[in-house]
Amino acid sequence: MSAPKSITPRRAVAMAVGLGVAFGLAGGALWSWRRAPARQGADAAALAFFALTLPDADGVQRPLKTWQGKLLIVNFWATWCTPCVEEMPELQRLADQSQARDVAVIGIGVDEADKVRAFRTQHGLRFPLLVAGFDGMGLAQRLGNTEAVLPYTALISPDGRLVEEHSGRIEAPQLRHWMAQYGSP
Amino acid sequence: MTQNPVRNAGRGDDLRTAIAAAAARWIAEEGCDYATAKRRAVREVLGDASGAGGAMPDNVLVESELRRYLRLFAADRQPAQLAALRRLALHWMRRLLEFDPHLVGAVLNGTATGHSGIHLNLYADSAKDVEIFLLNASQSFDVREAGPNAETTQEVLEFVVPAPRGSPIDGNVGVTLSVMDPVALRVAPSGRPKDPQLHPVERSGRATVSMLERLLAESGEPAGSAGRDD
Questions:
Q1: CATH number for domain B78-218, candidates 1.10.1040, 3.30.460, 2.160.20, 2.40.170
Q2: What is the pLDDT of residue B49?
Q3: Domain count along chain A
Q4: B182 to chain A nearest CA, in Å?
Q5: Could B190 and A19 be called an inter-chain contact, meaning their C-beta atoms sit closer than 8 Å?
């Protein structure tokens, strides 16, 4: 895993600019802190999301529409984010359990491809890990991450609605609850 | 020590709650950290720390029991102690404003007692800048390595300050500054309490100066002075 020293000054400046925006957003979002219900426009956000193409950790371009029509768990994460790292085994378990159903789990790394690749190997992760770099924070925000923090997990229904969202470390019971509520039997 | 969790420990699933209740008492009365309190509680309830196994409560349950304990046994003093600690925290946050201070821990979530220290996260490119600031302010401090969040925590600085004059806290108050990379603000705070009855700032996991001011104002506590102006 990358040490803090791997955060370059250039990246830090970019992050600092982003943080300014984030503070404004976070201030406004404080009172809907835990989990806002899907807002109006969420469907448009999901549509815009599926229109994108992102590289995976191996550099292969992956159109997000690949997963359109499934019950899709989108997890925004980074290798430098401790709670993100902690929840990865639970996401992998869910992905393993969901293979035969119309359920998919994808990770979007707010990170660099080589770090994501190394992490994937180190932890034996098999579900798709895409790489968005720091632009991933903007993508997460457009998908409802009003707190602008990681980890952030969104659930998109097969009919393209953003139905659930969770800021911070997600636990297995929460994922099971989502599956019970939205997954096909 | 006014409760006896052992009395309730025979009820199967209640064992975990009994351990959590005992841990809560150690935290409230002795100022133990959660890990130490849980170890002591297991010994107290089971007589042997090695046999806790699946009965070890998580921190969410311990915090829940701690809130219950404070309501039952410390309602006459804890709210005033908490308010004094929050005002003192605000005082230091204002002094450390250039390092983007955020209040975390028990003083924020409302479980602090007279034994509790103040925990601030500072977000700075270099921990040395914070050290220089403290040296210039003639504030002596100790330095220790970052703990479990070493990926984003550069350094931890600790010092003690006298409790504000006239406050309900005796002696000194510990102040812990975790100096973190600015990117750490992108990581969601851990262990955010979920109790909907808490003030949203108490549930936020980390609070800026303005958030703490709002919490104090909406809790009916004046935010203007820590009681000491050093």
A1: 3.30.460
A2: 59
A3: 1
A4: 7
A5: no
Residue among B151, B185, B204 whose CB faces A33 most closely: B204
Euclidean distance between the first and the last CA atom of chain B, given in angstroms as a whole number = 36
Does residue A172 belong to the interface with chain B, where contact is any CB pair within 8 Å?
no
Per-residue pLDDT averaged across A61-84, rounded?
95
The residue-averaged pLDDT of A50-79 equals 96
CA distances from B192 to B2, B119, B148, B157, B202 (A): 29, 15, 17, 23, 8
What confidence tens digit (pLDDT) does each residue in B183-224 have?
899 999 988 888 899 999 999 999 999 999 999 999 887 666
pLDDT surpasses 50 at B229: no
Beta bridge partners of B161: B173
Residue in chain A closest to B182 (alpha carbons) equals A16
Structural domain boundaries of chain B?
5-73, 78-218
CATH of the domain at A13: 3.40.30.10
Q: How would DSSP label each residue in chain B? A: ----GGGGTTSTTHHHHHHHHHHHHHHHHH---HHHHHHHHHHHHHS-GGG-GGGPPPHHHHHHHHHHHHHHHSTTTHHHHHHHHHHHHHHHHHHTGGG--EEESHHHHT---TTPPEEEEEE-S-HHHHHHHHHHTT---EEE---TTTTTEEEEEEEEEEPPTTSS--SEEEEEEEEE-GGGGGBPPSS----TTS-TTTTSSSB-HHHHHHHHHHTT---S--S---
ipTM: 0.70
The predicted-structure confidence for B132-173, as pLDDT tens digits, reads as follows 999 999 999 999 877 666 667 889 999 999 998 888 998 899
Partner-chain contact B192 A22, CB within 8 Å:
no
| Per-residue pLDDT tens digits for B46-59 | 886 566 667 888 88
Identify which of A19, A33, A78 has the shortest CB distance to residue B182: A19
Predicted pLDDT of residue A128? 96
The domain in which residue A68 lies consists of 4-182
For residue A149, list its beta bridge partners. Answer: none
The overall average pLDDT reported for chain B is: 87
Identify the pLDDT of residue B46: 84
- pLDDT for A49 equals 95
